[in-house]
Fold this protein.
Amino acid sequence: MATLRDIQRRIRSVQSTQKITRAMKLVAAAKLRRAQERVLAARPYAGKMAELLGNLVSGGNGRDGAAHPLLEQREGPRRQIVIITADKGLAGAFNSNVIRRALELVRQSSTADVTLVVVGRKARDFYRRRPWTIKRDLIGFWDRLAYSHAAELADYFMQQYLDGEVDEVHLVYNEFRSVAVQRPVRELLLPVPRTATAGATETGSVAYIYEPTPKAILDDLLPRHVRTQVFRALMESLAGEYGARMTAMEAATKNAKEMIDVLTIQYNKARQEKITKELLDIVGGAEALKQGSER
Amino acid sequence: MADRLTLEVATPLRLVVAETVDELVAPGSQGYFGVLPGHAAFLTTLGIGELVYRVGRDEHYLAVAGGFAEVRNDKVIVLADSAERPEEIDRARAEGARDRAERRLAGRGESDVDYARAIAALARALIRLQTAARGH
């Protein structure tokens, strides 16, 4: 049976844990709001971009769809897989979901055909001790995530793709569905999928006047599209991380409260027992004294 | 056919303008172009310059750099790398950028890439200052 002091110590320890989880929850909530706004603010650009690209690629008026090296599908087996996680844990299953999803994909190819790019400390730490080749890592930038991070990464992917180092580039990241829901998703980044872009076209064939030429515009548009995709994935992941952490910390705070309640009841019971015992001792002692004096 | 244009200007970071306008002039990569209602479908890359749009008698200015513009069915979509209203421009920063670019150009002899980059930086800084001066 735990002594009063033991129980008290545990209550205090749980209380201080609860203070931390509550603070973390508040911080995550504040950051989430900002991250969410950024995701929403960036959506129009990405949406219009896909629409423009769809118009160009599907090609109106019986014209052949425009060709570009970044659109060209190759049969080769070499895949590059980009895994996006957070730097920090304490966010429920946020990181492990993505890592597991990526692992499925990674195992589809033979080890020699796969190269990895890991974003976020958690992904790096996991894959560093495993047999796959990590080409690049990017960590410790989440607090100041900017378009330039995405642009730099995207340019690296495109360079490798154009150089023929890899035949496909996939992104695996947490998609931000809502504050409570993040879903690990996988997307084909390169070659730029025609289906995804064609689906965005509403009216199909429009006879555009192009300036300078469709080819020149495509040369400009495709790299930007890829950069935007990477940027969007990073922002979704960031918003998702905060959402996941907020939910996880809220649950932890609730659990701590339940634990404190249980411990408090235990404490009160133990205290009552102790008092009863002491009373009995005193009564018993007084009784013994009385009998002693009567004799 | 509508007698006005719908204009949307977006950058990777945000939607800058979503308005109904009467006329607009934008810096295409091949030179400035004007759009009035009834314009033919048009798709172009953007250069560095000032985008002007008119609502009634009011003219609004934006400093834009790089990207695309699409005109279709009296709807104009501008996807710019950057787009700022006069009041959003940090003048001191633009002046700093201009001076840096000028110094770099003065002391050249470097690679073509650096040269092109400095020219572009200079153009962006000058347009920003020009647009900033429009604000009152």
Q: What stands out?
A: The beta strands of chain B are 5-10, 15-21, 23-28, 31-35, 42-45, 48-55, 58-72, 75-84. The longest helix of chain B spans residues 112-134.
